[in-house]
Amino acid sequence: ADDASAGASLAQRVALAASSFDAVRGSALALSMDESGALLLQRLLKASTPSEAEDLAREFEGNIRQAAHSHYALGVLLQLVHCLGAHKAAFIADELRGEAFRTALNSLGSQLMSKLLECCSGSTRVQALVDEVLSGDLTTLFCHKFGFAVASSIASNGNHAQKRRIVSALRGGVQRFARHRYASRVLAEAL
Questions:
Q1: Which residue has the higher pLDDT, 10 or 177?
Q2: How far is 161 from 131, CA to CA, in rounded Å?
Q3: Rounded Cα gap, residues 78 and 187, in angstroms
Q4: If you write DSSP's letter for every residue of the chain in order, what string do you get?
Q5: Considering the entire predicted model, what is its pTM?
């Protein structure tokens, strides 16, 4: 409870002091774990310069997995991916490596992976993350209530080899996948 109240009071102090990057420097990760702090960071990112967004992103380095499992911090990460562009946001993909398949099956992680594919699919680092996902059980991915979104993103934004891998796995059970609540969406995207 003390951590939550301290985070909220910090967010309130920062919001009252100034809506500038100088006011949040060094506190971005803590602020992102709190609703009001995360909303403040997202507003700042929308109005940021590229160098301000890069400065904020550096505060998340080494903490992407933690942030990817926080509903509030996820919004900040999604905004960072949008603001930074493919080359600069690719560090997020690096930090998700080693847990890519599990992340794809997580309600929040799947959103982050889909956003990376949408904005950074040409990055070799994001492609490596996708290749790791594709090394897992694709039937599970297609049929999972969060994993299907990542599979659909790969089908629409992945490189040619990754798309081919999705299509090949779908061919193994077209009728089954066509009748499945989630897998049918992957099948539709792959067509």
A1: 177
A2: 10
A3: 26
A4: -HHHHHHHHHHHHHHHH-SSHHHHTTTHHHHHTSHHHHHHHHHHHHT--HHHHHHHHHTTTT-HHHHHT-HHHHHHHHHHHHHH-HHHHHHHHHHHTTSHHHHHTSHHHHHHHHHHHHHHTT-HHHHHHHHHHHTS-HHHHHHSTTHHHHHHHHHHHS-HHHHHHHHHHHHTTHHHHHHSTTHHHHHHHH-
A5: 0.83
SS (H, E, C) 117-164: HHHHCCCHHHHHHHHHHHCCCHHHHHHCCCHHHHHHHHHHHCCHHHHH
Specify the residue for token string 């089908």. Answer: 155
pLDDT at 14: 43
Query: What is the gyration radius of the CA atoms in the chain, in angstroms?
Result: 18
Residue with the two structure tokens 């996708």: 130
Residue 19 above 60 pLDDT? Answer: no
Counting every residue written for the chain, the total comes to 191
